[in-house]
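We now fix the convention by which a protein and its fold are recorded. The integers have meaning only within a learned vocabulary of local backbone shapes. A complete example follows; check for yourself that the lines match position by position.
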Amino acid sequence: MVEMTEDRMTDDVSAEIEIIEFVLKSIPFGVNVLKVKEIIMPVPVAPVPHAHPFIQGMIQLRGELLPLISLEKALCMEPDPARDTRGDKFLIMEYNLQKVAFHVHQVPRIYRLGWKDVQKPTEDDTEYHDHLIGIAEQNGKQTLLLDFEKLIVEIHPESGIHPERIPELGKRERSMKKIVAAEDSPLLRKLIHETLYHAGYEDVEYFENGKDALDYLMHLADGDIDITESVQLVLTDIEMPQMGGHQLASSLRTHPELSKLPVIIFSSIITDEFLRKGEEAGVAAQVSKPEIGKLVLKIDEVIL
């Protein structure tokens, strides 16, 4: 059994998420506060001819032109012409190296809870389950954590991951290298699998969250072998139900055997704050989605 060290106690903050709760038609949704650059009052919106139906238009913010996405339209909600719009806000966020504004109805609070209190959504939970990364529950109240990355890719497919864009890397032998990957999105697991397989990494074990990946690695570490003979790399997203990527990396770092494994974070939200958290968690590299070619080269650099 691994003892709780000073480092482990310090890293307990990695097990928490701070959520900005926003409301659409009385339904509480949420987003990680670190994804939001700022919250502003509505500003004039310039229409864009032939734009995607979810895009209300463009706004200007300190000299930058940003697309404004209506989350009400993106979630196929029926508009209410009689709704009081005086509490409306714009969330300014940055995903996949692009800045975007999202139109919401209200922003009532910001609160903190543990990743363990974030559950994977199912069809039985909500009609919006396909657009969620999880459901947070605190004091009996649920907040639906919206998958903004998926919404952006639906609107602008070019911003997503494209395995076919992997550069020609020549003859490569990577089939003996084992990677453990934690990614909660089925679509992204599929795209990452296609990409890594194309790059020669054929032996990848996928998990829906950091907790399942950690349990698997702990089981391997219980065997009488050098863990690095079984696994050469851990690849993880940041935001996942039950256990996020930073907490996964911190947990590996404090284990006498699993600390030998290099960790690479692959996420759409590599902000300055997340870079700092990744460094504190001891990761070997951090790559922003959708830079899948850079990810392959970084994997090569770390484990070969």
Notes: Residues 186-198 form the longest helix (13 residues). The two ends are 31 Å apart (CA to CA).
